[in-house]
Design brief:
Elements (H helix, E strand, L loop, with lengths): L18 E5 L4 E5 L5 E7 L1 E5 L5 E4 L4 E4 L7 E6 L4 E7 L4
Antiparallel strand pairs: 1-8, 2-7, 3-6, 3-8, 4-5, 4-7
Length: 95
Amino acid sequence: MTASPTLRPKSAQDVTTISFSEAPAGRFSDWHPAPRRQFVIILSGQLEIGLGDGSKHVFGPGDARLVEDTTGQGHTTATHGDQPCVTCTIPLANQ
């Protein structure tokens, strides 16, 4: 998962769909690769992402990241704090 401070696409991207999901407080997903290249936008709550180098990053409302780790170990995800986390996922069209 890309952990850059701000996402600034240089050009428009074709997308396939858009979906919304809510993860309850306390949810943890062990190591997994992303199912495809996709943008993930945090709408409410906080999401913690664990990377292979041992670092953990917490994202909150308004944070948007391009997820590209579609092979290998991937990353972990956890709802951070005591509130549910609502996300918007936007898969990129195959290029």
